[in-house]
Specification:
Shape: globular
Radius of gyration: 17 Å
Number of strands: 5
CATH architecture: 3-Layer(aba) Sandwich
Strand order of the largest sheet: 2-1-3-4-5
Helix content: 40-55%
Distance between the termini: 44 Å
Structural class: alpha/beta
CATH superfamily: Response regulator
């Protein structure tokens, strides 16, 4: 398989929550190499992220379904990344979405609090351009192509569980 032209079929969207336009562009460029960039929804603050996830406001007409991954900055206007994380992990319909924090913060309290609230990974943004690109590519490939996501919704999960474990006598 040629890594440069690797296309991942059937991939769902990735939600990128990043208020820094330069970091957002770098992230998209890194994902583009693996044909993931056209599947990335970008929002600039936590409030918009929640609107996207709950299909409110400007996102009320977006196609249903959860993103396969949320790439989340911590330090943002309106609603910060930690509050977005808490909301996602407290919601029965959203809590199975993998959330990866991409932050410039190496502060131990940020790291600990994110993990206490269910973050799936915490990645400190490398300062070096090449290292940043490499880190984002690896994240995109792992979460979008290698990781097996949870079923799309509760009903689908119930159906699959029932089929795998039929009732006695049924």
């Amino acid at each position: 398989m040629n890594g440069k032209n690797m296309e991942i079929n059937g991939i769902k969207s990735i939600l990128l929550v990043e208020d820094d336009p330069q970091d957002a562009e770098l992230t998209l460029a890194a994902l583009e190499e693996h044909n993931l960039a056209n599947k990335v929804a970008v929002v600039r603050d936590g409030e918009k992220a929640l609107d996207y996830l709950y299909r409110r406001g400007e996102f009320k007409t977006r196609a249903g379904g959860n993103p396969i991954l949320v790439l989340l900055d911590l330090k943002m206007p309106k609603v910060n990344g930690l509050e977005v994380l808490k909301t996602i992990k407290a919601d029965g319909d959203l809590k199975t979405i993998p959330v990866v924090v991409l932050s410039s913060s190496r502060e131990m309290p940020d790291l600990v609090e994110c993990y206490q609230h269910g973050v799936n990974a915490y990645v400190v943004k490398p300062v070096d351009f090449g290292e940043f690109m490499k880190a984002v590519k690896q994240l995109g490939i792992f979460w979008a192509a290698i990781n097996e996501p949870p079923p799309a919704g509760k009903e689908e999960a119930k159906h699959e569980t029932a089929a795998a474990h039929p009732a006695p006598g049924g």
